[in-house]
Each structure stands twice: as structure tokens, then as C-alpha cells.
Amino acid sequence: MKIFSIYNIKGGVGKTTSTVNLAYSSAAEGVSTLVWDLDPQGATSYYLCHKVGIPGGVKGLMQKKNPVEDRIKSSGYPNLDLFPADASYRYFDQYFAEANKPDGCLKKMIKPLRDTYKRLFLDCPPGLSLLSENILRVTDVLLIPLIPTPLSLRSYNRLVRHLAKNKKLKMRVVPFFNMVNTNNSVHRIIAKNVCGKHPIFAKQSIPHSNVIEAMGVKRAPLAIYAPDSDENLALTTLWREILKRLE
Ligand SMILES: Nc1ncnc2c1ncn2[C@@H]1O[C@H](COP(=O)(O)OP(=O)(O)O)[C@@H](O)[C@H]1O
Ligand SMILES: [Mg+2]
């Protein structure tokens, strides 16, 4: 199982939106895909029309006798399942801190899922925390959405420094620009300069668009309600680019 984490220290950059659309692209290839909504706000669960809440919450997940598989829901789309969020996820750090190996708790929770799914997408909450340390430890592919603004680049650089300090982490990193407004000169200049100078950034960026924003109303991946849109083409092209990097 390959684990794709959609993560950024910053909130509001499009982690959840990207998670739902990229996971849908993965599942649409016929590959068994699970999305775990790790953010207690539960936006991925909302987009996939599921209530927030799992039996037992974080406490239950920490207990071996409660298998994680029992919490999984079907998304209603072929090959795509959802592990919903729970309000108690805000206590992940507290529970992890009390464990024997605080940075290995998520790895343990995920273990039973490895044989069932080919790909796991983790929709991560923002911030640097014990949960994010756990996430980084299990991640194979780190997808970092960011808006082309100076502040967004600043927090990206902070994340890069953090990753560089931890020699144990061995993952593929793919940052990409989201919410790009081509009428905004700051966006245009940053996106062009950064992508030009730093090949680690995905060539394909995602535009700022009302069609994407509408996910909150449609509660569905873009490919369902706007399959022929330029925005969906951008998202599927980004997904292909990510897969290409893994070859
Ligand atoms: N490309 C985009 N164009 C327009 N709105 C977007 C785009 N990506 C995300 N959004 C909107 O921005 C807000 C934050 O996105 P979200 O995916 O929830 O970010 P995060 O998970 O990083 O907090 C949401 O209202 C979402 O609909
Ligand atoms: Mg989110």
C-alpha cells in the first residue's frame, strides 16, 4: 500500500479539496483507494457525504481490540472508501504522547489496512504536531498544496527545513500550486519563478475557480459534477504527473 499524505503546515490551502479529487482519480483507475479524514473538522467526510464520527473515537483506535477496518465506509464511488473524521481527533497528540512509541502510533493503526488497499490518502490537519510527525513517518508521497503567495512560500520553506532535519524520513515530495489566480501578478510571478527554478514543484497547477469552490455545495468530487471542465483536466493532469514521478 502506498500512502499519499496531503499536508501543509498552513490551513486553507486546498488540502481537503485536493485529497478528495486526487483520491477519486486514483479510484477511477480501478485501484482500491481509501481516504482517511484525519482532520477533526471533517471536511473530507462532508465532501463525501458522510457524518463525522467513528465508534470509540481516538481512544478506541488506540486499543488493539477495536480493529480500524470496522470504521470504514463506502464513498458510493467504485474503489473509493472513507475512514471518517471524528471530533476526538483533536486529542490525537494527547493519546500519542502517552503511548510507548509516540511517533509510531499511526503506523500501528494503519497496519491492518495494508493488505486491503493499494493506496491510502491522508487528509491532514495543518500545523506541526505529534500527529504530523506520525503522518510523516508513514508517508510514501507527500503532496503539498500551496497558494503562490509569499506567506505560503514561507511556511513551505519551514516545512522543507523540518523535513531536512529528520534524516529518517524517506518520502517523495511533490509540492504544487493551488488556487492560482492568473489575474493576480503576485500569483503569476511566484508560480512562474518557483516552478521554473525548482523542478520538485509539479508543472501542473490548479486554478482558483468557482467550479472547484462548488464542491462544498455539490458534496462530490469535481469529476462527478464537472467532468469536462478545464479544472477537472488540471486535476487529472496533476494526478498523472504525480504518478509519473513514482515510476
Ligand atoms: N482551486 C480552488 N479554487 C477555488 N476555491 C478553492 C480551491 N481549492 C480550495 N478552495 C476552497 O478554499 C477553501 C479551503 O480549501 P480546503 O481544501 O478546505 O483547504 P485546507 O484543507 O488546506 O484547509 C474551501 O472553501 C475550498 O472550497
Ligand atoms: Mg482541510
How would you describe the overall organization of this protein?
With 247 residues, the chain is an alpha/beta fold. It has helices spanning 15-28, 43-47, 57-62, 92-97, 105-110, 130-138, 150-165, 185-197, 210-213, 215-218, 222-225, 230-246; strands spanning 2-6, 33-37, 73-74, 80-83, 119-123, 141-146, 172-177. Strands 3-4-2-5-1-6-7 form a seven-stranded mixed sheet, sandwiched between helices. β6, α7 and β7 form a beta-alpha-beta unit. The radius of gyration is 17 Å and the shape is globular. The site of adenosine-5'-diphosphate (ADP) has 17 residues, from α1, α9 and α10. Residues 11-17, 43, 178-179, 206, 208-209, 212-213, 215-216 line the site of adenosine-5'-diphosphate.
Question: What's the CATH H-level homologous superfamily?
Answer: P-loop containing nucleotide triphosphate hydrolases
- If classified by CATH, what would the architecture be? 3-Layer(aba) Sandwich
Shape: globular
- Quick one: CATH class? Alpha Beta
Q: Structural class of the helix and strand makeup?
A: alpha/beta
Beta-strand segment tally: 7
CATH topology: Rossmann fold
How is this structure best summarized?
The protein has helices at residues 15-28, 43-47, 57-62, 92-97, 105-110, 130-138, 150-165, 185-197, 210-213, 215-218, 222-225, 230-246; strands at 2-6, 33-37, 73-74, 80-83, 119-123, 141-146, 172-177.
Topology record:
Elements: E1 2-6, H1 15-28, E2 33-37, H2 43-47, H3 57-62, E3 73-74, E4 80-83, H4 92-97, H5 105-110, E5 119-123, H6 130-138, E6 141-146, H7 150-165, E7 172-177, H8 185-197, H9 210-213, H10 215-218, H11 222-225, H12 230-246
Parallel strand pairs: 1-5, 1-6, 2-4, 2-5, 6-7
Antiparallel strand pairs: 3-4
Helix pairs in contact: 1-12
The structure holds adenosine-5'-diphosphate and magnesium ion.
Residues 11-17, 43, 178-179, 206, 208-209, 212-213, 215-216 line the site of adenosine-5'-diphosphate (ADP).
